[in-house]
Every structure is written in structure tokens, then in C-alpha cells.
Amino acid sequence: QVQLVESGGGLVQAGGSLRLSCAASGRISSYTMGWFRQCPGKEREFVAAYTWSGMPTYSTTSVKGRFTISRDNAKNTVYLQMNSLKPEDTAVYYCAARWLTATTYDSWGQGTQVTVSS
Questions:
Q1: How far apart are CA 90 and CA 93, in angstroms?
Q2: Which of 22, 42, 98, 118 could form an S-S bond across to 32 if both were Cys, CB 3.0 to 4.6 Å?
Q3: By CB neighbour count within 10 A (0-12 exposed, 13-18 middle, 19+ buried), where does 80 fall?
Q4: How deeply is 6 buried, as exposed, middle or buried, from its count of CB atoms within 10 A (0-12, 13-18, 19+)?
């Protein structure tokens, strides 16, 4: 397992942008890296993932087209660029890692708070 540390959260006005980073303690080239979020009063939900084979995938909800996931294996870091933020994007955002053919994410970060004001 790798240890994950998120950063980049904060308070932003609606329509603004933030870039979240997730730094891993080890090599991530064999991991699918994902971003999840938990909005107030709701369950944790999938936002986006970047597979170990190089394919990005996104939630079918409204984040598609506004959020972009990327990864830098040389830096063992994954990013989530969030544009055109909306108040409903307010949540704690979590980074997670899933090993090669594993079916579940088994490493999680502590989360970073994103608050979007209207």
C-alpha cells in the first residue's frame, strides 16, 4: 500500500478553479488513482480515476467537462483540476489508490476540504 496526502483544497467563489494534488509515498505506476468526494449529508461518491494503463474516467454526474484528472508517475502525484466550480461541489475530496487488477481501492488519503461560495 501507498500512503496518500491530498492538498490544494480551500475556499473559492462559484465559477472559480482549484487544483487538488495527491502525493503518494511510493511509486504509483501500477496503481489506478482515483478521486472521490463526500458532500455534506451525503455518501462518498466517485469523481474521477486515472487507470494504471493511462485511461482517465469520470463520474457521469455534472463534474464531467469541468474536472480533469491527470497523473505524473515520475512525481508519484495525481491531480484534479476543477474549473467552473459550483456550490454543490462543496465537499471533502479524497484521493485513493487501487493496485493493478484489484477490485477495490485500498489506500486512502485523509481528505481535503473544498468549499465553494455562491
A1: 9
A2: 98
A3: buried
A4: buried
In 3-state terms, what secondary structure has residue 114? Answer: strand
The three cell numbers locating residue 30: 501500477
Of all residues in the chain, the percent with pLDDT exceeding 90 is 87
Closest CA to 86 of 65, 70, 112: 65
Q: Please enumerate, as own/partner, the contacts of 37-44 that have beta carbons within 8 Å and a separation of 24 or more.
A: 37/89, 37/91, 37/92, 37/93, 37/94, 37/114, 38/91, 38/92, 38/94, 38/111, 39/88, 39/90, 39/91, 40/90, 40/91, 44/94
Cα distance between residue 54 and residue 69, in whole Å = 11
pLDDT one-digit tens code per residue, 82-109: 999 999 999 999 999 999 888 899 999 9
